Amino acid sequence: xxxxxxxxxxxxxxxxxxxxxxxxxxxxxxxxxxxxxxxxxxxxxxxxxxxxxxxxxxxxxxxxxxxxxxxxxxxxxxxxxxxxxxxxxxxxxxxxxxxxxxxxxxxxxxxxxxxxxxxxxxxxxxxxxxxxxxxxxxxxxxxxxxxxxxxxxxxxxxxxxxxxxxxxxxxxxxxxxxxxxxxxxxxxxxxxxxxxxxxxxxxxxxxxxxxxxxxxxxxxxxxxxxxxxxxxxxxxxxxxxxxxxxxxxxxxxxxxxxxxxxxxxxxxxxxxxxxxxxxxxxxxxxxxxxxxxxxxxxxxxxxxxxxxxxxxxxxxxxxxxxxxxxxxxxxxxxxxxxxxxxxxxxxxxxxxxxxxxxxxxxxxxxxxxxxxxxxxxxxxxxxxxxxxxxxxxxxxxxxxxxxxxxxxxxxxxxxxxxxxxxxxxxxxxxxxxxxxxxxxxxxxxxxxxxxxxxxxxxxxxxxxxxxxxxxxxxxxxxxxxxxxxxxxxxxxxxxxxxxxxx
Length: 502
Ligand code: GDG
Hints:
Bound molecules: GDP-alpha-D-glucose
Number of helices: 16
Largest sheet: 10 strands, mixed
Number of domains: 2
Distance between the termini: 35 Å
CATH class of the largest domain: Alpha Beta
Helix content: 40-55%
């Protein structure tokens, strides 16, 4: 039995087949959400992690619960076995084809027909059962992301005294968008059985409150002002206040608005290593006097890769003097088994090919398209080499790439300081507002944003980067972890003093 149970669909290690046997290795890079969540076990007395694994190819002596000893200490992992059909239905169809488009406000991509709601419920019920089996009666069970939306309601039925927290990594859309989902009452009722619900930014929290109010008799009982510095007025995702408490059926639900943040310490260490210096020198030698524009994301229509390549094509057309002088490295890591993403991938490949054919020569290629992941330490060298990091999603919960790019810029580096161009519709724009902010739905804004970044004088680049670096330090992964622990404590002992946060 554990005092802290983390429920996240991925397992907290990588499974590698060595000599025909499965070995569990820690993730190569300590960067990312999995190591961050595991670090919570090191802060307390261990804990449990609940994730799914496929029944396909499972060994006969499969053990559902194992104990792991790694750099984060000793903790249990409860492995929920799902059949390939369950994974397809619950994850690839219901979560990715119906929920994901609505969360990101793409009504036209919403695909309701293939959804099998009873299977979604069943899988969520299995997660809840596995979590309840691991949890002490008053444990904190911390559930992550929309594909587990029904878990809190089931947990409350199974163990009423649990402290249940839920964190959304995606945006939470406006009520009239969310309410497209026919299961809206069930999902919101489930979330209202939590003690704590967390979002990256106040806008998503406000959207959740508006949705809950539209469906149930819910009252917002407290809110706090947002520091202007962390949400300059007049931007697409700005909010002046963040709701912090809801009352529903005599219970209090605490709300938290705090971006996940990046591991600034680890990225700094990577950025300053001899290995990165060597890779950087190699990249810069290869580039010569060509300036690097870097774009990094998963292939997903929400990330705006197609619209960005179109903007690049317009840039090369309107500024022919840039031909032979810039190169776009477009990393778009391909996902498998989601058909909507295949279509985007094909279009990205076609557009890159067209741009290279139209503007390129034997000596110079305007776009380098990479569809497989770049090792993280190498990616850090590219962050350092880039003149511009071009992050223009159409809608994005936060966007860690923007923060990683800022973290990788060397402190006091007087030779190379890159410029961040960031979509106003990424949650990160709320606090990283010294970036060149662009509206990806406007050609004019996209075009002037990239030109402004390429033309920006060194002094201005340094001044903006200095503030951005201070902000990502203030809102790094440790500050997110501290905020989560603060809200877990709130539901344990009643209200604690509220900090003003982003
Ligand atoms: C969700 C929300 C929210 C990407 N390419 C490579 C690579 N990456 C790494 C980056 C970064 C991560 O993947 C992507 O970060 P995002 O923030 O874009 O994440 P999503 O996958 O969309 O995830 C998002 C996030 O959750 C956290 O709450 O910000 O809004 O959609 O860390 O570095 N890493 C390596 N090679 C690559 O080629 N090694």
